[in-house]
């Protein structure tokens, strides 16, 4: 099975679902990480062009922890729009190229505009990628199953599926720590220790799921989605 995890920024999938991705990879599924934005505005002191290079390397280093390919769509922080035809084309071509069986992305009610826009873009284009036109890349053969990863603090997010990630939680933390620029940024911008934050949410979902650490997901349940596909962990 091919699993495509799409976040708005280079560290989002590491924060929200890396334990599950590591577990999927460990049992033999192909896992591909994608971030829509370059992360160009994620630091107060580092200039944008330098920061882009740093964050791309951090993303590659994080993906290397689980030997997964990392793709950047090259959009800009704060400028992602679900109404942008250029952005839609990037997502369509991504899905046609990767041809995933499953996509994991942001919840529609996450906390910031880029996350919400990516959620909508993934929903829209994972269908559009199966239609003729748009691009010379051959159409995707099927509409992938769609799952939303936890929003950043779990507010108004009630998982329909929990994944026990105790055995891969330290791998998740290792991946997250590759994003050193963002450990600084999140402390300065949001006054949060993101490693502690992730551990706390993981423990909360673990309490709900009856294990030590868990990650929560909501399956998008609509017609044309292959809803009978079992979550592959």
TrEMBL record:
Superkingdom: Bacteria
Native organism taxonomy: Bacteria, Bacillati, Bacillota, Bacilli, Bacillales
InterPro entries: GlcNAc_PI_deacetylase-related, LmbE-like_dom_sf
Identification of the protein by name: PIG-L family deacetylase
Listed Pfam families: PIG-L (PF02585)
Ranges in a coiled coil: none
